Amino acid sequence: MNIKTRIAVNVLNGGGIISIPTDTIQGLSCLPRFDDSLQKLVDLKKRSVEKGLILLASDPVYFQDYVEDISLLTQLTSTIKDPVTYLLKASDIAPQILLGGHDTIAIRLTTNPLIMDLCKYTQSALVSTSANISGLKAAKTTLELRIYFKNQLDYIIAPNKAENSPSSVINLQTGERLR
Fold first, then answer.
1. Any long-range contacts for 141-148 (C-beta under 8 Å, 24+ apart)?
2. Can you tell me the distance from the alpha carbon of 28 to that of 147, in angstroms, rounded to the nearest whole number?
3. Between 144 and which of 41, 88, 134, 139 could a Cys-Cys bridge form, CB atoms 3.0 to 4.6 Å apart?
4. What is the DSSP string of 121-171?
5. Would you say residue 120 has pLDDT above 80?
């Protein structure tokens, strides 16, 4: 494990919030088991709790506590090529702040090497949301992250130079494409 990953894992396991390049755009992440971190993340973004948050992971096993029926997702793992966020029926123990007042939870499987390592070493899915203040464009540089969030992030892994865009969103139960 490289030093950046080691620091990120320690910050996440301590309940911190980090900014990392995801498989789509620069994101803000924390672990879903820390209620205070979830609330801080929503507050940092000035985001309505009604929007919910996404869980990212490299393996469906990391979602098992948060979704009612993981079998729907495991059937797709071999066919996922592009970043797609799926909505699945949430479990009874999924934190409400993740759901945004809905009965579904947004999850995305990824092959991003950094996220794969973070999931492996934290033994958890990552909460993820775009690195921006609600309504503004996502940060693409460390300077933009500092402008948006001052010194309120616990750790930053610099954004990639590549232009990326948000994932598609599909309700896996109904097949409806939402984005």
1. 145/19, 145/26
2. 14
3. 139
4. HHTS-EEEEESS-TTSPPP-SHHHHHHHHTT--SEEPPPPSS---PPEEEE
5. yes
* Spatial CA neighbour of 124 closest among 14, 49, 28, 13: 13
Residue 146: predicted pLDDT: 95
**3: Cβ contacts below 8 Å, ≥ 6 apart:** none
**Please, are residues 58 and 106 in contact by the beta-carbon 8 Å criterion?**
no
pTM for the model stands at 0.86
Percent of the chain at pLDDT exceeding 90: 66
Q: Which domains does the chain have, with CATH numbers?
A: 3-171 (3.90.870.10)
Q: Which residues contact 136 (CB under 8 A, 6 or more apart)?
A: 148
Residue 104 φ/ψ, nearest 5 degrees:
-115, 160
Query: Which is more confident, 23 or 98?
Result: 98
